[in-house]
Design goal:
Layout: E1 2-9, H1 15-28, E2 34-41, E3 46-49, E4 55-57, E5 65-67, E6 70-72, E7 76-79, H2 90-98, H3 107-114, H4 116-123, E8 129-130, E9 134-138, H5 145-151, E10 156-160, E11 170-172, H6 175-186, E12 191-196, E13 200-210, E14 213-216, E15 220-224, H7 231-235, E16 240-243, H8 250-266, E17 273-280, E18 286-292, H9 302-310, H10 314-329
Parallel strand pairs: 1-2, 1-7, 8-18
Antiparallel strand pairs: 2-3, 3-4, 5-6, 9-12, 10-11, 10-12, 13-14, 13-15, 13-17, 15-16, 17-18
């Protein structure tokens, strides 16, 4: 039986989502195949809690546990930690040094995709994928509002350059809203990105690799009652409507599947990821929003919705993800 470190928690506000993801994954891991240890990564300590409530600290030198004089060495790490240090490549680097396979993208890809500006530069070569105009700002350099307005048109999105769950993100329609939105984003990150708003339908595509083959899950359309798909819309039931599979023609579906697969390949992704697009209206042009390399796994999260729509069980899907990580590491 393979020993699994189910890694959750984290150092950011997204930790609350990580715990929900880990609970869902734990519930759906096949206990006949896997011996699962839920590892909590917090700023103060890394630890495992047994069923009696006793805590055991992780040895950070080799990412092991010692329980009743038995040293627990993990066969694979299932990363369910959103934000840092699980989504930015830091944990992946530790697992690489310790020789532990993991279920996500490697350290380099994770670091690149955590940076929205650099990610856009990498995917810019994909022929049928469009990118909105954008400006990157740094905290230590005072922003020139006039220069931003000369380069971009309203409405605009102001967001942290790194991070997820739409934390620190604002939609700006007039000049007076721009500086407060910049200040809000800088509370979350030292770099921020300002992008032109693209009007259209929003879609998100789940992608994973199994037996070395890239597969695309049924596509989801997101219809939010808010101005955009913000933190509340993502995690508050009823605020957004998610339609899986999306109502798209076969031609448009084939196009976005091809684009999403190319994004996965160009960024050298592994495990399951989710790529968000805007289909500009009226056109058949897909605009890249972002990629999420540790997508949410709570009961109502999008990847579980897509897996169920594909006809798979979550138990089988998670098993595929784990075995792909194990097999990939031995190639």
């Amino acid at each position: 039986m393979k020993k699994i470190a189910l890694v959750t928690g984290g150092y950011t506000g997204e930790s609350v989502i990580s715990y929900k993801s880990a609970a869902m994954i734990f519930q759906n891991l096949d206990k006949d195949q896997f011996d699962v240890y839920k590892i909590d990564i917090s700023p103060k300590k890394w630890f495992y809690t047994d069923i009696a409530g006793k805590e055991y600290l992780v040895d950070k030198n080799d990412f092991t546990l010692t329980i009743k004089n038995e040293k627990i060495q993990f066969d694979v790490a299932f990363i369910a930690l959103h934000g840092s240090p699980g989504e930015d490549g830091k944990l992946q680097s530790i697992f690489d040094l310790c020789g532990i396979p993991y279920t996500s993208c490697n350290a380099l890809t994770s670091a690149i995709t955590m940076n929205k500006h650099i990610t856009k530069k990498v995917v810019d070569d994909i022929g049928e994928l469009k990118l909105s105009k954008s400006v990157r700002l740094f905290r230590n350099k005072k922003p020139e509002i006039s220069q931003i307005m000369n380069q971009l048109s309203f409405p605009m999105f102001v967001k942290p350059n790194s991070g997820g769950s739409s934390i620190g993100m604002s939609k700006v329609k007039v000049e007076q809203e721009l500086f407060p939105a910049i200040q809000k984003a800088f509370l979350e990150d030292e770099e921020i990105l300002i992008e032109e708003f693209i009007s259209g339908r929003e879609f998100t595509v789940g992608i994973y690799r199994t037996n070395g083959i890239i597969k695309v899950l049924p596509i989801t359309e997101i219809i939010s009652s808010k101005e955009f798909f913000d933190f509340e819309a993502k995690y508050t039931p009823g605020v957004s409507k998610e339609i899986t599979p999306a109502d798209l023609t076969q031609e448009i579906t084939s196009k976005v599947v091809k684009i999403a697969t190319e994004v996965y390949e160009v960024l050298n992704c592994a495990g399951m990821v989710r790529v968000d697009f805007i289909l500009k209206q009226p056109s058949d042009q897909f605009y890249f929003i972002e990629i999420n390399t540790i997508p949410g796994q709570s009961e109502n999260s999008i990847i579980p919705q897509q897996v169920r729509a594909s006809g798979k069980t979550m138990k089988d899907f998670y098993a595929e993800i784990i075995w792909e990580a194990l097999n990939y590491s031995t190639k």
